[in-house]
Amino acid sequence: MAALGWLTPRRRSATARSVLAGEASAEAARKSSQDVSGVSGVPEEEPEFPVLGDDQAAAFFDLDNTVMQGAALFHFGRGLYKRKFFETRDLARFAWQQAWFRLAGVEDPEHMQDARDSALSIVKGHRVAELQSIGEEIYDEYMAERIWPGTRALAQAHLDAGQRVWLVTAAPVEIAGVIARRLGLTGALGTVAESVDGIYTGKLVGEPLHGPAKAEAVRALAAAEGLDLARCAAYSDSHNDIPMLSLVGHPYAINPDSKLRKHAREKDWRLRDYRTGRKAAKVGIPAAAGVGAVAGGTAAAIALHRRRR
Hints:
Blueprint: H1 16-35, E1 58-62, H2 72-82, H3 88-104, H4 109-123, H5 128-143, H6 149-160, E2 164-172, H7 173-182, E3 187-191, E4 193-196, E5 199-204, H8 212-225, E6 233-236, H9 242-247, E7 250-254, H10 258-267, E8 270-272, H11 277-282, H12 297-306
Helix pairs in contact: 1-8, 2-3, 2-5, 3-12, 5-7
């Protein structure tokens, strides 16, 4: 398991591959955006946030289990299976990984690595434009109904204040861009798969946009866009994103896993939970904050196997 060491929750400095992945994702996000023309632990005296008209501020949202229930990569895999990109045994593995993620609420490094390797082998030789078009269909089929209304409202608050809002995810930048566009966001930072003449090679540029690589992507984008990170906000459910959350002046723990919840409390970060009322109570969120929550993980796992299009 040494090869997966970069996925561990311990803090570490960014590697050269993390920096490369982050810079590649930031560049892809900037190009994409140019193509597309309550609270716990917060002092009552804190100024209104987000600040209206602050064009040096932006918001960065993790995707899986922060903006959307479950993992985008697994939903994408279901859509590709429906289009006969791979066989039934592969779908069973995707379904198990997704059910585990929904029930546990945290990422399993082995599952995520396996899913990424499978996705790369599946798309190898396909055109980028083809996957982008299919991503639009898959969003409607599997993802649109899984957006957390509460997190969506937070993103809209930044947009209404005149700020830019970016998704930051380990999912492929093409599918991340589709989700960002459908939600009316500025753009997306995602894992960049290598392509030559518009055709996927089956390799990555750098490494998956995860952990330290996410922070590097945000840092690179902020520099390119003239943003002041001290005035920016970041939102995530996972302790793996502590490097990204620590980078900004306004970090939020959304539907946090236990390690992030503990860290957020120690750092006096804001907490929001849009899952079940029981989990919301555990982190001290008022009942009203759970209005947008959906059915629990067990029902979702069962539905995953029963759903047929």
